[in-house]
Amino acid sequence: MGDIKRRCIGCMKEIENVQVCPYCGYNEKTPISKDYLAPRTLLNDRYLIGKPLRYNGEGVTYIAYDLVVDSVVEVREYFPDKLCTRSDDGSQDLVIISGFEAQFKALLIDFAELNEGLIKMRTLTSIEQTYEVFEANNTVYAIKEHVQGVTFAQFLTENAGELDWEETYALFEPLLKNISAMHAYQILHRGISPDTIRVTKRRELKLCDFCISSARNVKTEISAQIFMGYAAPEQFSSSVYQGTWTDVYAISAVLYRALTGSRPPEVSNRGYMENIIPPSILNRSVPSAASDAILKGLSHLTENRTKTVGVLLSELSAAEENIQIKIEEREPSEKKKPKRYGLLALLITSGILVVVGTIIVIFALSGNGGESSSSSDDSSLNSSLSSSDLSDDSSNDSSSSSSSSSELSVSGTTYAMPKLVDQMYESVKNNSSYKGMIVVEPEYVYNDNVDKGKIFEQSVEENSLISANTTVKVKVSKGTRYPTIPSYAGMKKDAYLSLLGDRGIPHTVVSEESEDVEPGYVISVNPQPGSTIDLEGSTSVEVVVSR
Questions:
Q1: Based on the domain organization, do 363 and 462 belong to the same domain?
Q2: Which domain holds residue 410?
Q3: What is the pLDDT of residue 500?
């Protein structure tokens, strides 16, 4: 258990009495709003509260430490800020705003029932675990699993923005089975998106961040959390009934994003038109049957949409089984992984006569499509196309040619410029799918707002038409120019030097005799931990180590 006063409220690891955590870099003096539970509050005589992690209209999630089982957990607090406030008398109780008592109570019951239902699903390993529900501070709390890993959105960014069919199916099959079982418990998520799915260290998916229905619908008593491009049309209407098909829409949208690098168009941009470019056109590794299943899951009208995740999974499984059979039937010389191309590369092929009419369609798809403006990590390739624009004549069979009196010879290979911004440069450099398409020239620049190693600017505009081996200049973040010197408390020399190296901090090492510090451990650091250093200056950190 250790001393609760020595646990970092940022990561809940046990540390010495220092201001800056040597593990996560959290500064103990970081201000936290009085609206949240005070750090180191002991909840239910068991859960040590840390910093707030996430907030939406339903409430707030804190990192916490379970003192009974000695493990990091998350605490979800029902706290709809439109209906209540935090007491300022030191009790930390919630105070209901006058006139909203009935709404507060009704949604509190919804919150408790949802999380009590989630407790019953402890056997579903792809669903975030819920351990306990209890009342305190005039509200209700749910104790949840602290899932180690990254969001699926981050995972895609680290993997060139999109995945092939085989990898996507392998990742999502267990999750889809668990969601289907979850629906059998009469529980809907309504917020499935790349931001609410996490990828664990074992490369497994977990669905997290469950909320009551009022938090995932517009025009309700509390602030809505809507994931644009992934939210089903019925979540924007109070008159259309929701059900398992609501989650079918969201998971189909996530699959679309994973396979194409582009999220589907927002509901408001689609109207009632089923105008989504098939995944099989944007990614040649996707079987046509799987592409059709995803599009059916994305149907605007609920009567046309796949009703259950189980049916969606069976259609995807059939596509996977079919492609495996085809692979087994091929000659060994033909067993090659399908190449993945951008939209333009699929329609324009080296050395093939292409009709002028096809060229016009290509430029319409690449240059005139409307781009969704509400997401920074997805650049949608889906424009306001009519369904006729995506007829069977413009399929993903790049070897077929159209009959026309006007023909144009296209020499060389042409590509659509991929999005490099927000990707890690090392991932781009090592991405074999870019070979022959682009030559990337990096420029390393300090940027306080972008993680070290991430690309934040590219010289060639995304989706523009490029030829083979086009040179693209990118700016790569060197991280902050003024990093904070970390604490050395209780650290061996090599561990501390590695910590400095991760932050790019220059340093020298001096050995001294010490009666108080074991050999190999850091005695002192100059300048002091918590201070900043200019990486462009001549100053380095002196690390004194016991010998």
A1: yes
A2: 343-477
A3: 86
